[in-house]
Amino acid sequence: MTHLSYDETLREITTDAGVLRYHEAGLIDSGPPLLLLHGSGPGVTGWRNFRGVLGAFAEHFRCLILEFPGFGVSDDFGGHPMITALDAVVRFVDALELDTVDIIGNSMGGGVALNFAIAYPERVRRIVTIGGIGRNILTPAPSEGIRLLQEFTEEPTRDRLVRWLHSMVYDPATVTDELIEERWSHATDPQTLAGARRMYSREAFAQMMKALESSKGPQPWAAMHRVKAPTLITWGLDDRVSPLDMALIPMRTIPNAELHVFPNCGHWTMIEAKEAFESAVSAFLLRKDQLTQGTPPPSIGTP
Question: What positions does the domain AB hydrolase-1 occupy (predicted)?
């Protein structure tokens, strides 16, 4: 597997709203495009979310890791970073003249992937989500991980960052000194922190929930039946940020969805269950089309 470095894969494009930065690797001239969308949280970047699995997917795809505006790598487009993320995807796909893409979306990135697939169904072939979609059914909201994220965002300390990082994983050994340092350095950058506070301060979070409740349109989880692309929903069994019961609605309402749950794993399935994640996702993305919209299942006993 080829080693891929940060600097050699980094690219940027200029849009009317600002500069979008991204990483490109793999079969650049001949491979099908695979768009990788990161999640949110202190010190997050697309590179940090997906650098560990990039080499595996680069063997088969033209991999494109987009850095969303408002997270300290691409320009900040202003506004709520979760809302501007969808606009950034549209601008990015248009700028690279991509007719169709496969998408892997981590947490927030998975929600953005579903929204893009609903708005532009002809442009998405398959989707893989990593936790973070749906809604709590059996567990309280906000979850432990979200509460710790709010605490750090409002008053950043290294101890609060470490507590939040531990809520993201099943194995505490995943939270290394190197991980803490790179997250701390990026999360406390003034511009990055300002973007985080527009998402996760208690006031911002409450306003977002109020806006959703008062909206005349359907809730995000209530529109998932409009996703036409075959979708692989992946989840960590021990996710303390988006507990597993959140998967029930998307699993049941996305028409061509399948669910893969990784044991002994928290919110970062692509990191804690790296080899199993690579295997399951590669098999899903590379297999011949088997899930066809509207095709009824065979009857019991049919050979």
Answer: 32-273
Residue 120 has which token pair? Answer: 């532009």
Q: How far apart are CA 21 and CA 92, in angstroms?
A: 10
Contact between 193 and 184 under an 8 Å Cβ cutoff? The reply is: no
b/e per residue 133-147 (b: at least 16 CB within 10 A): bbeeeeeeebbebbb
Is 192 in contact with 178 (CB distance < 8 Å)? no
Q: Torsions phi, psi of 119, nearest 5? A: -75, -30
Do residues 43 and 85 touch, judged by C-beta distance below 8 A? no
Domains of the chain: 6-138+219-286 (3.40.50.1820)
Global pTM reads 0.91
In tens digits, the chain (303 residues) has pLDDT values of 567 999 999 999 999 999 999 999 999 999 999 999 999 989 999 999 999 999 999 999 999 999 999 999 999 998 888 889 999 999 999 999 999 999 999 999 999 999 999 999 999 999 999 999 999 999 998 899 999 999 999 999 999 999 999 999 999 999 999 999 999 999 999 999 998 898 888 787 777 766 666 666 777 788 999 999 999 999 999 999 999 999 999 999 999 999 999 999 999 999 999 999 999 999 999 998 754 444 444 433 434
Q: At what angle do helices 190-200 and 81-95 cross, to 10 degrees?
A: 110
Task: Provide the b/e sequence for 269-295 (b: ≥16 CB within 10 Å).
Answer: bbbbbeeebbebbbebbeeeeeeeeee
Positions marked catalytic: 267
